[in-house]
Amino acid sequence: MFGGEKKKKPVKGYEFLEKIGKGKFGIVYKAKRISDGHYFAIKQQSSMLDSEQISFIHEVELIKKMDQCPYVLKIEDSFSKGGSFYIVSELCAKGTLKDMYEYHLKECSYVPEDEAWRILSQILQAFLFIHGEKVLHRDMKPENVFLAEGNTIKVGDFGLSEQLKQDDQYLKGEQGTWLYKGPEILQKKGFSWRSDIYAIGLTIHELLTRALPFRGNIMQILEQIKNQSLYIEINSNKYSQDLRNVVSSMISMNYRERQHVQQLLDHEKIRKYITPGSEEWLNHAKNNLKLDLQYEGIIHHVIGGRSHIILSDEPHQDSNSLTSSSKTAEQNELLSQNQSSYSKQIQTIELTQITEKTQATDSSNDQPYYHESLNVEIEEGGQGSGKDYIKRLIVPDGINEKITILLNPMITAQKEAIHAKLSVRFNGRGNQGFRILGIIYAWQGYAGGFFPGIDRQSIGYDGRNGRIYQGCKGVIKIDKYNNGDIITIDAYLPPISFFETGINTSNIRSLLTFTVNDVEQDVYVSKIPQSFRFCVSRYYERSSVDILELSVQPADKAPIVDEKLALPW
What we know:
Elements: E1 14-23, E2 26-33, E3 39-45, H1 50-65, E4 75-81, E5 84-90, H2 97-106, H3 113-132, E6 135-136, E7 145-147, E8 153-155, E9 162-163, H4 183-186, H5 193-209, H6 218-227, H7 241-250, H8 261-264, H9 268-271, H10 279-288, E10 299-303, H11 308-312, H12 329-348, E11 377-380, E12 391-394, E13 403-407, E14 411-412, E15 418-427, E16 436-441, E17 458-462, E18 467-470, E19 473-477, E20 486-493, H13 496-501, E21 511-516, E22 519-526, E23 531-538, E24 544-554, E25 565-568
Parallel strand pairs: 22-25
Antiparallel strand pairs: 1-2, 2-3, 3-5, 4-5, 6-9, 7-8, 10-13, 11-12, 12-24, 13-23, 14-23, 15-20, 15-24, 16-17, 16-23, 17-18, 18-19, 20-21, 21-22
Helix pairs in contact: 2-5, 3-5, 3-10, 5-7
């Protein structure tokens, strides 16, 4: 019952049965409503300061806003009596996510992957609704994810949550459990929806590893967070690369790289667990969700800065130095070292490297400088504007370095085959470079100096020399293109079932084609990934890229590529 405590008297028609939890914001009891015998959880907070009373009332008001969402813990009642405040909520008899993974640890087993995808999906659906109400949870962790019948997820404990004002995106302050704070919180950049995504990612990481993400005293934990030194990595023998990639993307150190909840819900494995009939409340949440430019607009992310790899071997040079068999051993060694350095940047980039201002690079060493993100000016076009472009993306004044713009939306395989198309026109003085157009695997990390083709997870088509790059190697040369030319890349993806089973039920193959001024090029890239983004790279202030078309449609017919040269991804 109450572990030696005197049994509590009924309050407001509820009989208190046993204590089931205790935290900073009160004691939680299992209770029975006397009138009908139904069971509930009741949180009691006693001897409250005025500020605590306000917080308690605030929690009730926030949760009531989300009553329509099946994956947020519902409140049945709330009241005060005898100096204490009470919140009556639905009872989750199965415990929490922490109880779930501790059970598996005790049984020497793991949470099944399908179950992990379902849990992640339901949490994200809850946060679509939460963020749609402009609420930031700020204390997401396994103990605050409750399990109802059938292990249905219920996100609860909104004691630290806060509602944003209409035009705000960030909250200042450091509320929340230290273990689940994103690096940006430690940098005093404020708390945003990206911080909630980080905490969700760590929650899933903890569920899969059955261990806390970081361990040690507070100073050791802070250092581990800064260095992304996770206590245990997710077991690659138990969980797929796909699931590990998604979790990794959610806990990216660079908060701007984290996918928005609505983008994550577009992932096929996550979307699979959206229950039929959920459209009404999900659409309500989507309509409420006023996303910033990172999702709602055409720009997902802008990457600036130069890594040493670009300085050492410019991809727009007309020489054949990247592919020539006469390349010296010294050049091979340098390229290999730089590619390795770039990979390490992606995985272990220090917070001190993430700066708001460009840091000068000493040519005598290999240290890159890095812009975390840059702004790009957007000039609107489209119907009724008298302009032939949808949007013009302009490099701002004072920025004379290479930048890469990752575009929305994320393209991902669907139930039926799709055709995604991007047509652009580069603008600049004369033949001013650098201009590259390409695609990047959607879940790939990226560091300063990234451009499409720098690694094996992207493809780039360089206008200055007509080369297609992958792994920073010019794998083949096709037509050059200049400022003012119209370049189109068409991507085709077969149904998602092909990527899951290898069986293609359509005549559409996974490939990418290139066209310059309506002239189809004689090569195509085969086996492109099932999820990717279009991206463009530019140089020099006031140079720009016109987005002439950006579309995703059902693929009604397959492109003819039989006589083209195939470049495997």
